[in-house]
Amino acid sequence: xxxxxxxxxxxxxxxxxxxxxxxxxxxxxxxxxxxxxxxxxxxxxxxxxxxxxxxxxxxxxxxxxxxxxxxxxxxxxxxxxxxxxxxxxxxxxxxxxxxxxxxxxxxxxxxxxxxxxxxxxxxxxxxxxxxxxxxxxxxxxxxxxxxxxxxxxxxxxxxxxxxxxxxxxxxxxxxxxxxxxxxxxxxxxxxxxxxxxxxxxxxxxxxxxxxxxxxxxxxxxxxxxxxxxxxxxxxxxxxxxxxxxxxxxxxxxxxxxxxxxxxxxxxxxxxxxxxxxxxxxxxxxxxxxxxxxxxxxxxxxxxxxxxxxxxxxxxxxxxxxxxxxxxxxxxxxxxxxxxxxxxxxxxxxxxxxxxxxxxxxxxxxxxxxxxxxxxxxxxxxxxxxxxxxxxxxxxxxxxxxxxxxxxxxxxxxxxxxxxxxxxxxxxxxxxxxxxxxxxxxxxxxxxxxxxxxxxxxxxxxxxxxxxxxxxxxxxxxxxxxxxxxxxxxxxxxxxxxxxxxxxxxxxxxxxxxxxxxxxxxxxxxxxxxxxxxxxxxxxxxxxxxxxxxxxxxxxxxxxxxxxxxxxxxxxxxxxxxxxxxxxxxxxxxxxxxxxxxxxxxxxxxxxxxxxxxxxxxxxxxxxxxxxxxxxxxxxxxxxxxxxxxxxxxxxxxxxxxxxxxxxxxxxxxxxxxxxxxxxxxxxxxxxxxxxxxxxxxxxxxxxxxxxxxxxxxxxxxxxxxxxxxxxxxxxxxxxxxxxxxxxxxxxxxxxxxxxxxxxxxxxxxxxxxxxxxxxxxxxxxxxxxxxxxxxxxxxxxxxxxxxxxxxxxxxxxxxxxxxxxxxxxxxxxxxxxxxxxxxxxxxxxxxxxxxxxxxxxxxxxxxxxxxxxxxxxxxxxxxxxxxxxxxxxxxxxxxxxxxxxxxxxxxxxxxxxxxxxxxxxxxxxxxxxxxxxxxxxxxxxxxxxxxxxxxxxxxxxxxxxxxxxxxxxxxxxxxxxxxxxxxxxxxxxxxxxxxxxxxxxxxxxxxxxxxxxxxxxxxxxxxxxxxxxxxxxxxxxxxxxxxxxxxxxxxxxxxxxxxxxxxxxxxxxxxxxxxxxxxxxxxxxxxxxxxxxxxxxxxxxxxxxxxxxxxxxxxxxxxxxxxxxxxxxxxxxxxxxxxxxxxxxxxxxxxxxxxxxxxxxxxxxxxxxxxxxxxxxxxxxxxxxxxxxxxxxxxxxxxxxxxxxxxxxxxxxxxxxxxxxxxxxxxxxxxxxxxxxxxxxxxxxxxxxxxxxxxxxxxxxxxxxxxxxxxxxxxxxxxxxxxxxxxxxxxxxxxxxxxxxxxxxxxxxxxxxxxxxxxxxxxxxxxxxxx
Length: 1331
Hints:
The chain has 55 helices and six strands. The strands form three sheets. A two-stranded antiparallel ribbon has the order 1-2. The protein has a two-stranded antiparallel ribbon with strand order 3-4. A two-stranded antiparallel ribbon has the order 5-6. A hairpin with a 2-residue loop joins strand 5 (1306-1309) and strand 6 (1312-1315).
């Protein structure tokens, strides 16, 4: 993913202002293709076909497979043709994808498709204005919430595509300029109540603000935009200095806001603070001391964009920037190495890049509609000169830093675009002075690398810099010694420089000019206008085409005949020679040969739309259609296919010949003149060259000619890559033959054939279906089958980076394939078992939950009609029945799959390793859309006490998921704050911190409910952000009442879990196994088990408590030393689950629970050990986390009692109690009276005799002061005051120092040494101050 800020400030240098039938943005390079007329004609036809099929799919309520497939065709269409549609169609297509996102329970793969398409459709912001399009921010936020905070994912109830987050961010970025003018206020109203600096919700909210707040609003809407929040957010940023993670989101937001609103925001008052924070973010060492690195570092793109946006119109920003460089200049020196150096050099290059982007945008002929700085704030020529002078000195130093040379060279490249006269001459002089330096060879390579990136600025004659051309010949001569056979790096850099110059300079014989000229004045490096490009393709004429055909037929047929007749009699070298000739002739001629006329294979995957396009053609680049006496593709497939059989059978050791024969065979099916890897290589080279040679400041379309020709070549190849994706009978036979060779007994044959098989399978849509039956047949075959065939089959299942069969989206295929993989008897050998493990691991990484029941909705169907036309109602009705049948078949396939895997687990045919694989597949298949078969739930429960530890762990995760699925519904209530408090309250104003209207959500003055009715009617707000910053207009909360399962109201799957956990023998065995599950030294509190126990106690109430209490005492009384740590861990996990799972219990139930828990916890706390303390701290932490302190007053009172207990004299026990009390930090600002009490008691122990206690006290005192934070327009009145505390400590410290200086610590009298108690206490206090 590229940098978000750089992407947002894109200057679109490739945009071409052309109008072709009112199309939005056609790809201009198509106009220069030799087959442009065909491309143009097919462009209109292809778009109509795509619109038709997308519309048909949605109207007929089918999403898989057609939606993703035809969306990818649209994406490919835009890649080839650009935005080759009118604005009206453009907007309709955008609205279609927005509408699809409104579908309930939309499959995540389709969600990702919508995100990707929306970004591609909206990224060219200048083409669509806010008047043309409005996107509902709430829709995108709904998906952001589902994707970024999906609790089901942690329970394995859903698996989302790996890169869906990146797609989401790009989509929001593209759509944000089109949020409604009311969006800013709506977003603020929605999310301001989540702002609490002590809670993780603050980071989540700032992330939402960064993503969603509109920053592209025009001047007339600024009052409804950033002016609603900027002063407030700057105040928050200034208030917090602890470098929280959300600060990065805030800086990113400020940066983009500044960029989109240059000249409309007065940053002047904030400049000192902004630059101070920037300097701090570098984490530079002070003297010999390394300043502790900040946990979170600002994005350099954000920082530099922000700085550049604040320059101009007499701003002091440039002076602050100069001061910053003065402060950090020494750290650019190569001798000052450290982690900070990467950020410093990145700061240089991105600063220069951002400045170039701003100059380009301000002077662009067709600016983006939201980028309209006032004339007075636009950068002047003097501003540009001053900026370059400010930055260049550090840039010149930075190029000698070995580790980040390329980044430093980029900085010089961007600066030279701005002022070549200030950058090029000094660098050239440095080069000349370094050429003869033997002691510093690195200087030469560094400067040469830098100059190579400045090549165009050197050779191009510009108004303010014409002398660059005079450097060309001296430079070309001077660098020749750099070609040094003993120094590869220097040689490579020299060639890179020579290539850069000579690509821009036309070399001609000027030898006769020496009599008249002694300088260079030819204007090298100039651009060429598109309309004067005059691309001249060589179109082979009729004679040349005839000659090519004759040549091929003359030489290829004899070789094929020779191979067929005498293959076995030929030597290895002769055979290889002959095959090599056929191979290269095939590569040369197959572009001329049409596809084999063969029947298309339909219904590989049923769909209401076709797979392939009606418009699949080979674009002719010949004066006449090449004519061979037969289709050479067919001849090659027949002859080479037979040849492969002969070689494999009789000459299996001839690996080279087999490899080339396989290549020819596969190329006959998939090759049409261009290899994908060649096109990718050309694209990579083009992008690198574009970065080196394009100067945005020269103006639009100012490309060197060679670069434009390279881009046209790339475009030509792209059209040849994607033709023919529908499978034919001939292609099917190719796949089947390659498959059989891929499972051959010789490993060399298998390996080569598999590579070509994957290439063919990737080419043709859904062609994997052809090999599924054969794979299943092999996996189910008897154990005496050839082991090499099985290995080949498993390697095909393992696939490669681009093909992986087991996770293809087809429930009918998975229903058959996964059980065959799980039960195959061939996985018992070590080699095949390792392969199966690798396959299973890859499934876990790549599997995303597939929808079982799919449908569209009215909104999406209406949008589908808009992009094409409505379908006939009769067709709609008939297809609806097919859709319902398909959904039913999917559900049946899922149930069959789960039942089959389950029966395998319950049987005795699988090894333990196979059982682990099968169980992990079942766990991966858990989902919440349809009921999970009861038999599967039974297996998960039974396997909690299985002898295999891995199966037990998977079972625990399964029970956790089932508990979530089975949890009774919550009852929600919505009230205003006034209704809750029963008095008028102003909720509009933001007054963060302590207020009268949020006292009631703290534990202060809370009186526990005495009746169940009172308990149920209490408004408990569990998340600690509630009420801190401001209140929402209405408060939605869960009623303090929840149904629980009882013996009389349990479904079968619930009852089974109940029966097992009511069995004391089962509980005993279960807990014993959990103790043994972790190895010594690797034991840690298992939050997964905590969630399992939480779910069990939440769903079943007190039912299991007595059984578990009995086991808890057994666990903490464990006498075997090796088991003590594990026993306490398990006990802590169970108790945490009890505390958290009981939140909705009745008062009576809670009283009963704590009547049993309190004596148990007393016993635990009286017998804590160093190995077990952390487990009980985790128990209380998770038990209290994200809970209303009033609801949790019982555990809070218990923790409070620990520090009110009489001191035991045992140092460890005292520190342990304070350590447990510290878990109250999870309640954050909502227990102020307790923090005051802790502060008062703890500060009296700062001079405690024992160091361990003093250290723990120092930590908890720091915690007690954490919540004394005052945000803008807020107050902190209830918590211990940090300033008063420090004043008191300062006073005590002065007094202690005075005592220590006056009173000797020890008095020696004869044989006796007496320690003065006052001096000892004073010294203890002084030492504690260091913590």
